[in-house]
TrEMBL record:
Keywords: Aminopeptidase, Hydrolase, Protease, Signal. It comes from Idiomarina loihiensis (strain ATCC BAA-735 / DSM 15497 / L2-TR). GO terms for molecular function: aminopeptidase activity. SUPFAM superfamilies: Creatinase/aminopeptidase. The keyword Hydrolase applies. It comes from the Bacteria. Residues 202-398 form the Peptidase M24 domain. It holds the Pfam family Peptidase_M24. Transmembrane segments: none annotated. This is Xaa-Pro aminopeptidase family enzyme. The keyword Lipid metabolism does not apply. Residues 1-18 form the signal peptide.
Amino acid sequence: MLKNIILLAGLTCSTAFSANLFAENITPLPLKQRAEVIDDLLQKRVQQLLPELMQQNDIDMWVLISREYNEDPILKTFLPSDWLSARRRTILVIHKPGNGENLETLAIARYNVGEVFKSAWNPEQQPNQWQRLTEVITERNPGSIAINQSKDFAQADGITATDKELFMAALPDNLKDKMVSAEPLAVSWLEKRIEAELPYYRNAVKLAHQIIAEGFSNKVISVGETTTEDLQWWFRERAAQENLPVWFHPSVSVQRIDDPQPGHPRSTGIVIQPGDLLHVDFGITYLRLNTDTQQHAYVLKEGESDAPEALKQALINANQLQDILTKQFEETRSGNDILLAALEEARSEGLEPMIYTHPIGYYGHGSGPTIGMWDKQHAIPGGGEYPLFSNTAYSIELNNKTTFKDKAVTIMLEEDAFFDGDGVSYLNGRQQSFHLID
């Protein structure tokens, strides 16, 4: 069972991390203020980032089309905070006029779509929405027209077969010849972060860390009674109480050094006992930014005041693997190159590594370079060939197996980090010592 606790506005503190990580706890913004932040950041991204991305990718016009409850993953990131879905058929047009002029952001809709996209359709004058879209395109005569279609990145493949068919049927032949995939632009839009987003992203990760610290404490866990499943649902409930959606169900597992198969976590209905090494995988969404975190806690045995030295060394080894990996981050280097170089160096240092790091941002498993998968520790076609760019965020996800005597333990870590072009910095530190439960 879980202990009865009073859930205060502030979350509990932990000392299980690098210095100053929890100097002061924070609380999530009220929903209205979150909406204001989301809309402000969207405007800044469209004004500051999008013109540069369209120029870099040589795209003159970007057309995004979705119907209600079947939203294109990219279009969702352009909706205002108080739109929880598309409405009827939502068509957004982003046009780069050239000659130093500002982007045009239009909605082929009866009304504006938030503050960014201005209505460009009066159904009383032109009843056919597709025809009006064609008129808008023809009036501007762009050199290229990009739609969200992609073989390698699901989030850049959002146009449906029906919408593409209807769009193409409405276009004259001279415009059909200008159609291109928006994949490079779409991926860049998803993965790139602007400076104004970073303080909020750091807070998102801090909130996730605070909830983990609270869950991995005696306030929540009754040793000998609480199960891993109890704790999974506690994390889910705790996030919900703060209006923080989780983008996957939390997982909690246990490793026991004396297990017949040491180093293999177990998670189904296990009662937490002294000597257990606990692991959590937990991710929240805050201000449309996603987190993804894996950390460990140790349950003290009677007479213990700290985790055993062997476990502490295992964590040190996993931190070493993090350093080996992030040292390989260089702009324009492919995910495959980063993966293979990191694995080679780690193995040469005597580690037993697995690396499966991924982009993160608007989506938890974001678009960008794939740096390994848990079941593919080799070069990966498609996403693995994509290059690393600056001002992008990643979940540094990996594990390392440490063997001592006839025992083994696997430390599985995941911490969110930012690559600025010069190096990698963790958005709210990383775990360097265990949460302790007595």
